[in-house]
Design a protein that fits this description.
Length: 701
């Protein structure tokens, strides 16, 4: 097994091997060296064992992972992969062998250098062949936002079905992206350019890993997911490149279950009126510094029970006068035994758009919109992934498991789309995947990107960062339109109103006007959320903590503010009065500084560093192309944003560019842990290097 490891000036690994399997081993090895702590956190999260070293703060996730049967589903999917596609199964095994070899390295290794292991007393364990599938599943299980159905249930119950549309938006728990394809007829080189940025929770270490994989079969650069072999989402093979965005499809269902205990265990009422035995067992979750917690795991014919049980919610109570609450989750890999890993090797081997298209026919989870282009002028714009055929009601709310008509009936065909004037733009709006989803992002990011691209006849790869970093906030119009007619204001409020109406609507970090707009917006959100009409939504049900971000009223109002302000009527709420009061409130105590003073980066870390970083201020906002999301009304801190940026140039791959929020290394204190952060902040990109003369050889294996 001949393996060569090189690094470029940014510490990005460039791997060469004599076969695809050897290359997978090298990828696992170098990922363990660069991201040992991250890999172990992700392994434990997939298994539901992270509280054993992270403590009580990780318990809610571990409960969910156990009850949703993530690790067992990953194991089942790997067993199915072995039967259907033994080549890919062996390739995944080679990656796992590399991870285990890297984690087992002794003194001087990246693992030994990672201080988190010593702080938590954690020793790396061994990865199973199915662990990469578990990491993939744990990363994406909440990606489609199925807990939004719990929110819709609350809204319909308390406000009626018409209220659902008022709160429909790219909400606090979903992950989105920008992506655009400019065909050769619209570029200076005559070859296509693909660019964009995935929006996710900003994590440190990052969720994407820049990497270059080369063997006799293929030579690919792209953004890998640490813990998963290959390059799934964003890659350039030299002759074809592809990228994805979240399709915002609905492909996970929640069922209300009727459960009862018997002497033999637990039974669930099925649609045919028969009580049938549900699978049941208990598991123990270890919690650092606390007593172990026992978790009851129940699975019905629909899927694992993730909320409640035979006696109701976690505290053993049920709502007065209602049947006990139990909710099961039906999600595709649990039903089909397929996570779509059979797409990964064909993607690496792709030479043309047709190859990418065929590979994505095997894609399962999550459901994405794919854009691809090749050097022969081929382009692709399609949806890929498993969306079940089932009743319309399943997509909207919880459905009764005991009533017929809610069963899955196979897989839906995924739509395709063309280009308009040589361009395709996806930003989670109601686009090609519209027949497959319920809630989509507002059209602002899509419309802004499309408008910017229309302003110029020819584009180059070097032009794309200006689009990545655009800060125009079109959604501000709804609130500003409410400010315009206000009269009888105090002099301070009148001056603030006039200043905001003259503002250029750019959410730049150095803008005092952007800070004032955000302050007024937050004040309006808080006032609307406090209205008696919404009082019934202010206290969510006692569902597990992992679902609470989707159920909290204040974020829901914040992200849906545009809808709430523009609806013809809002339950008798005096919106002009609320806006007036918010304007006066901010005028009496205006922000002292600029937007970047409060709109600061707030990345998720499994364990905060002993010496906290002074995280930078950010430009952008939720509906800007530069999508850096706080929660209006709650905090300006941005936990979501561009988890990477990329520009794939089909004319010359070496003219492609990429960047991640922090760096190639996940080791605290490493020279490459945060060296890309200044570039990411400024909208600059790192060159994609493929010339070995510009690389430094690290080692042979």
């Amino acid at each position: 097994m001949a393996i060569e490891i090189y690094r470029d000036a940014w510490g990005i690994p460039h791997l060469r091997a004599d076969s695809a399997a050897s290359l997978a081993h090298a990828q696992g090895l170098v990922t363990a060296r660069d991201r040992a702590w991250q890999l172990e956190v992700e392994r434990h999260r997939a298994q539901g064992t992270s509280a054993s070293f992270l403590g009580e703060s990780a318990l809610a996730w571990d409960r969910f992972a156990r009850r949703a049967r993530l690790d067992d589903t990953a194991r089942r999917c790997f067993e199915d992969l072995e039967r259907r596609d033994p080549e890919t199964a062996d390739w995944v095994r080679a990656y796992v062998d590399g991870v285990n070899a890297g984690l087992a390295e002794g003194d001087g290794s990246a693992r030994a250098a990672a201080p988190e292991f010593a702080r938590t007393g954690l020793a790396p364990g061994r990865w199973h062949p199915w662990t990469p599938l578990g990491v993939w599943l744990a990363t994406h299980i909440l990606f489609a936002g199925f807990p939004a159905k719990l929110w819709r249930e609350q809204v319909v119950t308390h406000l009626g079905a018409d209220a659902v549309g008022l709160f429909a938006t790219d909400g606090p728990g979903t992950s989105g992206s920008n992506g655009w394809l400019v065909s050769g007829e619209r570029t200076v080189t005559g070859q296509a350019v693909i660019a964009g940025d995935p929006h996710r929770w900003i994590e440190d270490p990052g969720v994407y890993q820049q990497i270059h994989l080369s063997c006799p079969e293929f030579d690919v650069v792209g953004l890998a997911v640490p813990g998963v072999p290959g390059i799934a989402h964003f890659a350039h093979t030299g002759t074809v490149a592809w990228a994805i965005t979240n399709a915002m499809a609905d492909y996970q269902d929640l069922y209300r279950e009727r459960l009862r205990r018997t002497g033999a265990g637990v039974e669930a009422l099925d649609p045919d009126g028969v009580w049938r035995r549900a699978a049941r067992h208990t598991e123990v979750v270890e919690v650092a510094g606390e007593e172990p917690v026992e978790v009851e795991v129940i699975e019905t014919g629909r899927g694992p029970v993730v909320i409640g049980g035979p006696e109701g919610l976690a505290d053993g109570t049920a709502d007065p006068g209602l049947p006990p609450v139990a909710v099961s989750l039906c999600y595709p890999p649990r039903v089909t035994g397929d996570l779509g890993f059979s797409a990964l090797l064909p993607l690496l081997r792709a030479r043309r758009v047709a190859d990418v298209d065929r590979a994505f026919d095997r894609w399962a989870e999550p459901v994405n919109v794919v854009q691809a282009a090749d050097t022969e002028g081929g382009v692709l714009h399609r949806v890929a992934g498993y969306v079940p055929l089932r009743a319309e009601a399943n997509r909207l709310r919880l459905v009764p498991a005991w009533e017929p008509g809610h069963e899955w009936r196979g897989r839906q065909e995924t739509p395709r789309a063309g280009l308009t004037d040589g361009v395709a733009v996806m930003a989670n709006q109601r686009g090609p995947a519209a027949p497959l989803g319920v809630e989509f992002a507002p059209p602002h990011r899509h419309d802004r990107i499309a408008a910017l691209l229309a302003d110029r006849e020819r584009w180059s790869a070097a032009d794309m960062p200006a689009i990545h970093t655009d800060t125009h906030l079109a959604s501000a119009a709804a609130l500003l339109d409410h400010l315009r007619p206000l009269t009888d204001l105090t002099p301070e409020a009148a001056a603030l109103r006039d200043r905001l109406l003259a503002w250029n609507r750019r959410m730049d970090a150095g803008s005092a006007d952007a800070a004032r707009y955000a302050a007024v917006r937050s004040a309006v959100v808080r006032r609307l959320a406090a209205e008696p009409a919404f009082a019934a939504l202010a206290t969510p049900p006692a569902y597990p903590d992992v679902f609470q971000p989707w159920l909290a009223l204040l974020p829901r109002v914040g992200f849906a503010l545009e809808h709430l302000l523009t609806a013809p009527e809002l339950y008798g709420i005096d919106r002009p009065a609320a806006v007036r009061a918010a304007l006066e409130e901010v005028a009496g105590r205006p922000p002292a500084g600029v937007w970047g003073d409060t709109h600061r980066l707030a990345p998720w870390r499994a364990l905060d560093p002993e010496t906290p970083y002074a995280e930078p201020g950010l430009s952008g906002d939720h509906d800007c192309v530069l999508c850096t999301s706080g929660v209006p009304g709650l905090t300006d801190l941005a936990a979501r944003g561009p988890a990477a940026r990329y520009v794939w140039d089909l004319a010359r791959r070496e003219d492609s560019r990429w960047v991640v929020p922090f760096g190639a290394s996940g080791v605290l204190g490493s020279a490459h842990h945060r060296d890309q952060l200044p570039l990411w902040l400024g909208g600059d990109l790192v060159p994609v290097v493929t010339d070995r003369a510009q690389l430094t050889k690290e080692t042979d294996v």
